[in-house]
Amino acid sequence: MNTLQHGKLLGYSFVTWLSFYLIGLPDYYQQWPFWIKLPLLPLVTLLYIPITKITLKKYWSDGKHVINSCWLAFYLTLPLFIYDYLLLGVYKDLGINFVFSYWYLSFFYFSFWLQFPYIAWRMEKAEGRR
């Protein structure tokens, strides 16, 4: 990947984080009841299936979907964790314990590392590469 692609993915990650943050206002989904948050995890996971496919095709043209999906997972987990840590851990003074009280955010720090490569593997398989 070149520097421009890294920059675009970093911007993409910030826009993604900001979108989720704004949707979750005023308290980043804490005000939502558990029975609403819980079904949203699989819903967002399902929503990311077409988003992942579109992103892998938009940002890369080399067809190396599995490798590229790892870059996508990196940019949609580590920077988002950092943004969440700065907001919740530092600004709201929750420290690293925010990962427990904001468990629904923590879910995606890990799930994208499983989901994106799997989607990419399926794409490569469908294209006859695997």
Write up this protein.
The chain crosses the membrane at residues 9-26, 32-51, 72-91, 103-121. Keywords: Membrane, Transmembrane, Transmembrane helix. By secondary structure, this protein is mainly α. The protein has one domain. The protein is built from six helices and no strands. It has helices spanning 3-23, 34-59, 65-75, 78-91, 98-101, 103-126. The radius of gyration is 16 Å and the shape is globular. It starts with a helix and ends with a helix. 18% of the residues are buried.
Give a brief outline of the structure:
Keywords: Membrane, Transmembrane, Transmembrane helix. It contains six helices and no strands. It has helices spanning 3-23, 34-59, 65-75, 78-91, 98-101, 103-126.
Question: Could you outline the blueprint of secondary structure elements for this entry?
Answer:
Elements: H1 3-23, H2 34-59, H3 65-75, H4 78-91, H5 98-101, H6 103-126
Principal-axes shape call: globular
The share of residues in helices is: over 70%
Radius of gyration: 16 Å
**Tally of individual helices:** 6
Enumerate the spans where pLDDT stays under 50 for 5 or more consecutive residues: none
Largest sheet: none
Question: Can you count the beta strands?
Answer: 0
Q: How do the SSEs run, as a string of H and E?
A: HHHHHH
Structural category is mainly alpha
- Count of structural domains: 1
The average pLDDT value, as a whole number, equals 95
> How widely separated are the two ends?
22 Å
Report strand %.
under 5%
